[in-house]
Design brief:
Blueprint lengths: L1 E5 L19 H22 L4 E4 L11 H11 L6 E4 L11 H10 L4 E3 L6 E4 L2 E6 L13 H4 L7 E7 L16 H4 L4 E5 L5 E4 L2 E3 L15 E6 L5 E6 L4 E9 L5 H8 L8 E12 H14 L5 E12 L2 H7 L3 H14 L6 H21 L1
Parallel strand pairs: 1-2, 2-3, 3-4, 6-7, 7-8, 8-10, 13-14, 14-15
Antiparallel strand pairs: 1-11, 5-6, 9-10, 11-12
């Protein structure tokens, strides 16, 4: 029995947190990539001889996606009638808040797309039964996978669980999925959704993560899982993500060529489809910080998104650097005052950071206009 395990497509997500610069369409490209992953999942099914794609919740980003998002998703899933799609309600598209959504899916879906709106076993094949645990409310407050324990299946059939939720519950409400649910429910495999990164909870319990990443946290392109049950369990990662979200650390020391260090850190290919966040840390002088800022501004247009974070980068001050701003007059008075505030032991850290950033900008401005 072979199938594709995926989750958290979040179709219709608008990416409002992504800056939209003039003459760019980054948000639109990210949204289109999420829709395009439907075809990549179908291709993964064909390539691995799988007839079924199991989506473990949050197929849609909200309970009220537009009809265009819904209909185009269903149409894409219906392109290959030999691939059966099984859609589980998650917390974003839960049964209560998204009731009209699921009614529309049931009414308009092609024959190979199935909405799992009941916690009841479904026959996948003569020797395989799907046991779904749909999310009823956005925050159900209980472990819905507990229903799998008593859910029946034919004698000798492979039991495949499908659920959405975390294996850790920090509120101690008992809502988390226990990491031994595969044993308590006698499952050959438990397909989970909710966590957006790839994670193996155990040999038979897996999160594939979202097939098209949407945050810097996980640092790799999205994947789905090609799973074989029967005999030895096989779980194979298949890359499906178009965009790479990556967070890079840039440790610096005083006197280092910060611009060269940044250039060496950045990927040399695939930049248009890469979103990068560079976190600079350590120490740098005013000239090095100005060079770093200029190098970042030069590199940024190559990438889908480029962000330079300097909150952890301290400033090493040299009198000669301040002399480059001005040896006297109003600019030098301002520079000396900002340096004093930046090194003050009585001001708050926020105020010191503001002064240091202002001094760096003043230095860069003077050098640019010199």
């Amino acid at each position: 029995m072979r199938f594709i395990h995926s989750s958290d497509l979040h179709l219709g997500r608008r990416f409002a947190n992504i800056p939209e610069l003039p003459d760019t369409n980054t948000r639109g490209r990210l949204m289109e990539a999420r829709h395009g992953v439907i075809g990549r999942l179908a291709a993964a099914a064909r390539d691995h001889g799988a007839e079924h794609v199991l989506l473990a919740g949050d197929t849609f980003d909200t309970a009220t996606p537009s009809s265009m998002v819904i209909r185009q998703a269903l149409s894409a899933m219906g392109d290959d009638p030999n691939v059966q799609w099984w859609l589980l309600p998650g917390n974003h598209d839960n049964l209560r808040d998204a009731e009209p959504l699921w009614q529309e899916i049931v009414r308009d879906a092609p024959a190979n797309v199935h909405a799992l709106t009941e916690a009841a076993p479904v026959r996948l094949a003569d020797d395989a039964t799907l046991l779904p645990a749909p999310v009823t409310f956005r925050n159900p407050g209980t472990d819905l996978s507990a229903a799998l324990v008593a859910m029946p299946s034919p004698e000798g059939a492979r039991r495949i669980g499908l659920a959405h939720g975390g294996v850790t519950d920090f509120t101690e409400s008992g809502a988390h999925i226990p990491p031994d649910r595969d044993r308590s429910a006698r499952l050959d495999y438990l397909a989970l959704g909710d966590w957006h990164g790839r994670m193996a909870v155990g040999d038979r319990i897996h999160y594939p993560g979202t097939p098209e990443q949407d945050r810097f946290k996980h640092g790799r392109r999205g994947v789905c899982l090609a799973v074989t049950v029967g005999g030895a369990l096989e779980v194979t990662e298949v890359e499906t993500g178009h965009f790479l979200w990556t967070e890079l650390d840039l440790p610096l020391h005083a006197g280092q060529d910060a611009a060269a260090a940044l250039s060496a850190l950045l990927p040399s290919s695939g930049r248009r489809d890469t979103l990068v966040r560079v976190k600079a840390s350590g120490w740098a002088g005013l000239p090095e910080q100005a060079a770093l800022t200029a190098a970042a501004a030069h590199a940024a247009p190559d990438f889908a998104v480029f962000e330079l974070v300097t909150a952890a980068l301290g400033t090493h001050y040299e009198t000669a650097d301040l002399d480059e701003i001005d040896r006297g007059g109003a600019l030098r008075l301002a520079a000396d005052r900002l340096r004093a505030d930046a090194e003050s032991e009585t001001l708050s850290q926020d105020d010191r950071d503001i002064a240091a950033a202002a001094l760096s900008r003043l230095y860069a401005y003077v050098k640019d206009t010199a």
